[in-house]
Amino acid sequence: xxxxxQLSAEARNETGKGPAFRARQKGFIPGVxxxxxxxxxxxxVDTRTLERHVETGHFLTTLFELDISGAKTRVIPRQLxxxxxxxxxxxxxxMRLPKxxxxxxxxxxxFKGQESSPGLKRGGVLNIVRHDVEMLCPAExxxxxxxGDLSKLxxxxxxxxxxxxxxxxxxxxxxxxxxxVASIVAPTSVIEEQRAAAAAAAAAAxxxxxxxxAAPAxxAAPAxxAAPAxxAAKAPAAPAKK
Length: 242
Description:
4-stranded mixed beta sheet; about 35% strand
């Protein structure tokens, strides 16, 4: 399950562009905590601490226990605002996750059984259709990833979302169809050989077939031993020698 990280913040009593600018000047990122049955609260988070979490690459899917001046609440980041010139974080929004709350998250996809897959052993290639899947997750059981088993898949076989084991209560947001997550496809060399063979067969089938006994083209010499065509003039006999 997803590990909860600790993060400290300070309450902000002033809001607006001016106070937010002054907070950044002091080394803090202004933010807002919202959701649950409580009014939104303005906070400020240490810039260096926040940036270290952002640099992990999965900040927006990380659970935090946010300590706001001694009052702790479970949250998840929902939005980061970046400076258009420097790409530095200038604002952050957190959503409260009270007990029993659910949240939509993109859960990464992983695979096992590559060494046993008949299709991969035959030179097939793993084609990953979805690198992550949006899931509706209870706050208490957010998975780090979902894992698919490739050990029995041959070329042209697929893994659908129903083939993945997920924690209780975790469901995909797409429920109306059993969508494909990954498949094993033939290697490019095999596909090209099949296309070349099909093209050659099609060319052979459409090539004109010469009719037996057809007259040679005008000016063309008849084949050796072939009878002259009907109505053709005979060559004059050579004059007798005296």
